[in-house]
Structure to design on (110 residues):
């Protein structure tokens, strides 16, 4: 499960109601949750220890991190291979370039 808002530049922004959202996720049997990095303090301060212990919380700063956490590292490689296999030539370089730019932005701004 994931909660958060994403800017047009791919930055994951913090949201409210973390305690309620994670408590509901735990009750529903969800064990892995993706949250905005800037909501870490909310989890540490407001979430009961029992719920924290039941959940694997992954904090993300960019949409690229969220996609990798949700779908695995092979997501981008598979997307590029699929484009190439369908005759799109080197247009898949945009996927790699977008990923590289997101990581650069993350390192410089966050």
């Amino acid at each position: 499960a994931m909660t958060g808002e994403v800017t047009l530049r791919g930055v994951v922004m913090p949201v409210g109601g973390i305690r309620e959202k994670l408590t509901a996720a735990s009750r529903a049997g969800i064990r892995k949750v993706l949250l905005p990095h800037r909501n870490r303090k909310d989890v540490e301060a407001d979430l009961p220890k029992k719920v924290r212990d039941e959940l694997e919380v992954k904090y993300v700063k960019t949409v690229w991190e969220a996609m990798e956490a949700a779908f695995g590292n092979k997501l981008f490689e598979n997307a590029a291979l699929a484009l190439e296999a369908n005759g799109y030539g080197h247009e898949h370089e945009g996927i790699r370039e977008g990923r590289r730019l997101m990581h650069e932005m993350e390192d410089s701004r966050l």
